[in-house]
Amino acid sequence: MYNLFYYNIEKMSDEIYYSELKKLPRLRREEIERKKDINDRKLSLAGDIIAKKYIGRLYNVHEEKIIFARGEHGKPYVLNIPTHFSISHSGNFTVVAISNEPIGIDCEVVRDFSAIVAHKTFNTCERNYVAGNTADRKKSEMEKAFYEIWTAKEAYLKYTGQGLSGGINALSFEGDYNKLKAINKDIELVYDYSIPGAITAIVTAKKR
């Protein structure tokens, strides 16, 4: 069981941004301020705001009492509450997933992708799924297929807590042109399309 929350940073005025930024611990505040682009700073800040807000509501804890920490590979977690969360950003949106079990999410706006990256990174089944089995396959269909695979791989790395150190192919797929299935049988992979033009992949443990 998990909950997904979305936030569009177009709603975040500069006044709100600076007000909320001041509430963060110094090290986290400096980490956000090092980002060059104001939108990136707002996206990152929104993750903290939304995660604390809804963890507080779900667990009936005041936001100021919620303490975030980072794992060995940078995965954020709640130090003083038995819950799990994962954050992703793309376009103008920050997405937060909260669960009572380990979870990983990745959100990507569907756009042009590098065929070179797909060729070097994806296995044969994955490349075939992106390419399709007809010569007139639409570019939009290839883009959607690419990001279905990419977001799942990223979400899995967040789920395990390894981050990029685990390697993008820690999760691989098998199948054909029409359908892929994750080789790892211990996880549940679900897609969410609530953000127009974007794909969000959610990875959790398979229910026993």
Query: What is the averaged pLDDT score?
Result: 93
Helix content: 25-40%
- Total discrete domains: 2
CATH level-4 homologous superfamily of the largest domain: 4'-phosphopantetheinyl transferase domain
CATH class of the largest domain, named: Alpha Beta
Q: What distance separates the N and C termini? A: 13 Å
CATH topology of the largest domain: Ribosomal Protein L22, Chain A
Order of helices and strands: EHHHEEEEEHHHEEEE
Describe the SSE topology:
Layout: E1 2-8, H1 14-21, H2 26-33, H3 38-59, E2 68-70, E3 76-78, E4 84-90, E5 93-99, E6 103-109, H4 115-121, H5 124-131, H6 139-160, E7 173-175, E8 180-182, E9 187-192, E10 198-205
Antiparallel strand pairs: 1-5, 2-3, 4-5, 6-10, 7-8, 9-10
Question: Overview of this structure, please?
Answer:
The model has no long low-confidence stretch (mean pLDDT 93). By secondary structure, the protein is of the alpha+beta class. The protein folds into two domains: 2-101, Alpha-Beta Complex (Ribosomal Protein L22, Chain A); 106-205, Alpha-Beta Complex (Ribosomal Protein L22, Chain A). 36% of the residues lie in helices and 26% in strands. The strands form four sheets. The protein has a three-stranded antiparallel beta sheet with strand order 1-5-4, covered by helices on one side. The chain has helices spanning 14-21, 26-33, 38-59, 115-121, 124-131, 139-160; strands spanning 2-8, 68-70, 76-78, 84-90, 93-99, 103-109, 173-175, 180-182, 187-192, 198-205. Strand 2 and strand 3 form a beta hairpin. The longest helix is centred in the first third of the chain and has 22 residues, at 38-59. The chain is built from six helices and ten strands; from the N terminus they run E-H-H-H-E-E-E-E-E-H-H-H-E-E-E-E.
